[in-house]
Amino acid sequence: MVYDRQAVEEKRKEKLPYDHYKSIFKDRDPHQVAENTGCIYNEEINELIVKMMDRKYIVKYPTGEILNEDYSEIDNYSLKTLVLRYLMNGKPVAPFHKDITYRDIPGGNVYYRNFHGRCITRLARTFANNLEGFEKACMSIGAEKVPLGDMAYKFEFVNNVFVTFALWRGDAEFSASAQILFDGNVSFYFDAEDLAFVGDVSIGILKHLAAENR
Hints:
This protein is of the alpha+beta class. 45% of the residues lie in helices and 21% in strands. The mean pLDDT is 94. InterPro entries: DUF3786 (IPR024264).
């Protein structure tokens, strides 16, 4: 019973930011949002389509309700908050084709410890000793192989936002390790706090795809 109360409270806390951004989203011009992010806006049914790696999400306007591509519900308020923040904050800035680290992002030093544990360490544990699975997952979303570490791929997380995952195998002397890089334009779409969830979501999607492609 205590566990259930905790779960309900956690869901409530996750829902609060989503409700907040929904209340702001309704006042945005959907045509401008589509122009800024490159997302498709269907004026006839008032829906924006957000492509995230291998997935598509439907965003209702003006309510800000977010659904899967098949219109099923999404029970992940953090993900839905991230989608709305992307739509509201995104600027039409093309990739710089120059990678930066999380520490290079404004606020990155402040949140680095959280990002390292939540994303970089998790990436290494998930894939550094399963490079075959990592490669298959990356190839399934059309990622580009890049010369870094023992294996690295660059992929488009959402329109114009590119992320690179690099991996180093572990051995008798060194533990497995990883690095996550972002194209230099990333600050025009996400802030440092958002990017911790970008990494988290990306790893989750690739892990799922790796399991599917065994």
